[in-house]
Write a structure and sequence with these properties.
The chain is α+β, with helices and mostly antiparallel strands and 238 residues long. The protein contains 7 helices and 9 strands; from the N terminus they run ααββββαββαβββααα. It has one domain. Strands 1, 2, 3, 4, 5, 6, 7, 8 and 9 form a 9-stranded mixed β-sheet that branches. Helix 4 links the parallel strand 6 and strand 7. It is globular. The N terminus is likely disordered.
């Protein structure tokens, strides 16, 4: 009997790391997908205007947001955020922090299909809002439909007023999109699985307390290649 109990305990203990590794792999796959989605969007001819991404302090990528079942709290998406490093956002892009997008509008605006989202966080106020536990778009943080195409510039009204600019892609269509009422919050459980310990988004993207995970390499290398330096007005970086 003792032998059977010991064998059962050993099997159970052996199974635990495998389960933990499985959930970690899932988050790593999601982080890799963020890099793939950003690469595909950056290759669209009328993509995010270079002038705007060059003035963004942070970028959030949410791949394949899904329409939830009726009555289960709307829809959701999970992805990652990276910010420029340095006290005044003048350095290279940070290691990614995992984030969740939730709200009844997600997945319904374009026919209920899976949708990829990209958000540009345009100033310090927007960054500080997103580093709180949870923010409502259009409430806690001002959000606007992101202009697209090579002719759009950072002088647009959307840039001048908004703390966050939002874009979406579905069925090959890329456009700015309104998501007022939806919420963004840091995904603490996903961050723990990626980095192997409990850590919040501020420690990751602003305080540099973690190294770059291999799964985030593509996302961050794309950001460093497409926008290596912050082109915002010096006053806005103080």
């Amino acid at each position: 009997m003792r032998r059977i109990l010991a064998l059962t305990a050993a099997v159970t203990l052996a199974a635990l790391p495998a389960g933990s590794q499985g959930t970690a792999d899932k988050e790593e796959n999601r982080l890799q997908e963020c890099g793939q989605v950003l690469e595909e969007i950056m290759n669209i001819p009328d993509n995010v205007p270079q002038d705007l991404i060059d003035r963004a302090e942070c970028v959030v990528v949410i791949p394949a947001a899904k329409k939830g079942a009726f009555g289960l709290g709307g829809s959701y998406g999970r992805g990652a955020m990276s910010c420029r490093t340095g006290e005044n956002f003048t350095g290279s892009w940070s290691a990614p922090a995992m984030y969740r997008l939730e709200g009844i509008n997600i997945g319904f605006q374009l026919g209920g299909e899976e949708i990829d989202y990209v958000f540009l966080v345009m100033n310090k106020r927007g960054v500080n809002s997103l580093l709180k536990s949870k923010v409502k778009l259009g409430g806690d943080i001002s959000a606007a439909i992101g202009p697209k195409g090579r002719t759009a510039t950072a002088a647009t009204d959307a840039f001048m007023r908004a703390e966050l600019l939002s874009y979406s892609r579905t069925r090959g269509l890329f456009a700015g999109i309104a998501l007022e009422g939806s919420t963004l919050r840091q995904d603490n459980s996903a961050n723990e699985k990626i980095y192997g310990r409990k850590i919040n988004a501020r420690s990751i993207v602003r305080q540099g307390k973690v190294g770059m995970p291999a799964a985030g390499g593509k996302l961050i290398s794309l950001l460093n290649r497409h926008s290596p330096t912050n082109q915002s007005e010096p006053k806005s970086l103080e």
